[in-house]
Design a protein that fits this description.
This protein is α+β, with helices and mostly antiparallel strands. It contains two helices and 14 strands; from the N terminus they run E-H-E-E-E-E-E-E-E-E-H-E-E-E-E-E.
Length: 160
């Protein structure tokens, strides 16, 4: 069987996925955990890796193919020159493997040793404490024979 991309209606990816699965169509709707700041609090939220799209594994000769574009939540079958675009199994498998490795990494954890790679403290080793908003982090550095809390850009951190 071959993989195809479907575009879903805005904010209806989960609805389209549920209705396709109810028709026994093999689907792949990759999501990743994203850390967001809402009302001053950090929350983890699952968001689609490819916003607006999901993938189905189905042959065009299958009778369920005719129902795809009329399934609730589905906007259209991604096509070029009126031919549905195919996606190889290797690409889908690579995305699945990449999702697993991202989930294992899970970002920088409190207490983890990091190195600062830009700014006035470049090259200094530090201990990660916490995130401070979307783009900044709080780290501990040894400065003047004392541990100091410093706010730095997240982009300046490199895990050791």
């Amino acid at each position: 069987m071959t993989w195809y991309a479907l575009q879903h209606k805005p904010a209806q990816g989960d609805r389209a996925l549920n209705h396709l699965q109810n028709q026994d169509v093999v689907c792949f709707y990759p999501k990743i955990s994203v850390e967001k700041v809402r009302a001053g609090k950090r929350i983890n939220k699952l968001e689609p890796l490819f916003p607006g799209y999901l993938f189905v594994n189905l042959e065009q000769s299958d009778p369920r193919w005719a129902k795809l574009s009329s399934t609730r939540g589905v906007l259209r079958i991604v096509s070029f020159a009126n031919t549905p675009a195919t996606i190889s199994d290797e690409v889908i498998q690579h995305v699945k493997n990449s999702l697993d490795s991202v989930a294992e990494q899970g970002g920088i954890k409190p207490g983890q040793s990091v190195q600062l790679n830009e700014g006035p403290f470049e090259g200094i080793n530090a201990i990660f404490q916490a995130y401070d908003g979307e783009a900044r982090a709080i780290v501990l550095i040894n400065f003047m024979q004392k541990r100091q809390r410093v706010k730095v850009p997240v982009s300046a951190l490199k895990s050791s």
